[in-house]
Write a structure and sequence with these properties.
Elements (H helix, E strand, L loop, with lengths): L3 E6 L2 E6 L10 H15 L6 E6 L4 E3 L5 H8 L4 H18 L5 E5 L2 E3 L1 H6 L4 E4 L4 E3 L13 H7 L4 H8 L5 H7 L4 E2 L5 H11 L3 H6 L7 H12 L5 H9 L4 H12 L2 H15 L6 H18 L2 H10 L16 H7 L16 E5 L5 H10 L3 E5 L10 E2 L3 H5 L4 E4 L4 H11 L8 E4 L5 H13 L3 E4 L2 E2 L1 H7 L2 E7 L1 H14 E8 L3 H29 L4 H8 L7 H4 L23 H18 L4 H15 L11 H6 L5
Parallel strand pairs: 2-3, 3-5, 4-6, 5-7, 6-8, 7-9, 10-11, 10-13, 11-12, 13-14, 14-15, 17-18
Antiparallel strand pairs: 1-2, 15-17, 16-17
Helix pairs in contact: 1-3, 2-15, 3-14, 5-6, 5-13, 6-13, 13-16, 17-21, 19-20, 23-26, 23-27, 26-27
Organism: Tropicibacter oceani
GO molecular function: 3-hydroxyisobutyrate dehydrogenase activity
Family: Belongs to the HIBADH-related family.
Length: 638
Amino acid sequence: MSDTKIRKQGRAGHITLTRPKALNALSYDMCLAVEAALDQWRNDPQVDLILLDAEGDRAFCAGGDIAEMYQTGTEGNLDYGRRFWRDEYRLNAKLAEYPKPVVSFLHGFVMGGGVGLGGHCSHRITCESTQISMPECGIGFVPDVGGSFILARAPGRLGEYLGLTAARMGPGDAIHAGFADHYIPEAEWPTLKTLLRETGDAGLVQQAALPAPDSPLAAQQPQIDALFGGEGLADVLNLLRNDTSDFAQKTLKALGRNAPLSMAVTLEMIHRLRAMSNLTIRKALELEYRVSHRIMEHGDFLEGIRAAIIDKDRSPKWRHALDKVPAVDVSRMLAPLGKQALDFRENSMKIGFIGLGNMGAPMAANLIAAGHQVTGFDVAGVTVEGAAQATSAAEAAKGADVVITMLPNGAILRSVADDIIPAMQPGAVLLDCSTVDVESARAVAAQAAGAGLGALDAPVSGGIGGASAGTLTFMVGGSDDAFAKAKPLFDIMGQKAVHCGPSGNGQAAKICNNMILGVTMIATCEAFALADKLGLSREAMFDVVSTSSGYSWSMNAYCPAPGVGPKSPADNGYVPGFAADLMLKDLRLSQQAAEAADADTPMGKAAMDLYQSFVEDEDGKGRDFSAMLPRFEKRGRG
């Protein structure tokens, strides 16, 4: 069951967190669902604003769901947490920068991840029950999800105080500190939501708002500014120890419970961000991610979760004593990450890629360049820079969200499928980009479905050049759900992906397309050879045909005559962009399918026979399929 309720109502897109028993703690799936909705509504003319709220009486969102991070982190898998944070931080930035009004209704507990979700919206509404805080230092982490951005812009030294102590803010404090905008009693919310949905007018929020309640923090601001004005953690501790007020002693006790390294890093983060003249939420998130990336391995995060959530002994064993946090450890946490820096790219997937030949290798490289995690396997030992190398196809498939295959024929596809399907995780998608027979594609899809997997047959058009440039066309067969999951990958590897229907239809489309291509290339080559013998120049021939009824892709984009039209393999000695051997394979597949379907395809068969002679009996093997032209040049009618 989904933990978010996402729908369009009137002029609004409405997102409701529906996990009240867990205080609406934000899971990875919830994070991705919210982002997908925002992406869908960004350019929807029927959606004027977004409403963001939550079920239950106790919390809007009490933080991120960190139990899975603890489990994976203690197992040595640091990638899960890093991936979660990358995607969550991208969502935080997206909310802050969203082009339409986003109205968040912040009731009850709003902590950590809840601040990231509701605290960067354009219209942030509090009520009587609102309790906002950034409690991360208590579990060995630092204020993140863009919280450091708000803390750095808070009045005076409130950012340092709130970040280090995890003090809770009621509605008046939250508005004073910059974590919220408006105060509207919760009893008025249903009426306001109805009006917002009906009108799409976010200006109604301001009209409904009441004066903010008093802020105790504002009253204490001078004392907080004095006590938290130190440069480092040791300075703050000294100021607190030398102040005998109840407030100072209570604050000192609160700091004594938190992770020393986390507090020292938090202070440094806030100071760096406050000093920036052009501070943006992206800069804050990038700095936060430097810590997130390292926190499990070099910080106190796992120990903090253990003590607070897992064992609940409330006795964490921090790495450092309160007064003994080396400056070098703080600097190490905040050092730039280089290629691993947060870059706000769209959702990263874990991809297994099997078959890294002339087509597969550049396709995999494009996925890596887009930020996806690729593990490759090729029987010839081919590797791709940036991809992890597996020792078997099954190893490459293990744990992947999508497994892509690019293989020579249907028999090999079936064999590989036997190896990888048992290794794939439920819900993953097997995306076969090979060109194979329809029967094999459908058999593998049925086998995948039986194992709880999605399956797509998605042969490509565009050749090696298209694979390198990311301009392939994919002809795709399979379910709607599997196609939707793979669509972001198609957008990286190609310029177009056509969903042709159920499994096998992608191969059917490719076979029909390439039968046309084989036939038209032969006709184009025959026509040039005839033009030569009739004394018509090739340039004149191209100029006429390319703008007349003889127009075709074979003529206009892939002209087989050297020096005529756009550059093509003909201009490079017919070094293959698409080999004649592969055209013969595709034409054989077309005739195999035609026989099975009882379809009369005389031109397709004639093209197959000609390419068979060209490849097997003449000099066509290893040459481009357009090298039919010099073949016809040499031949007479007999």
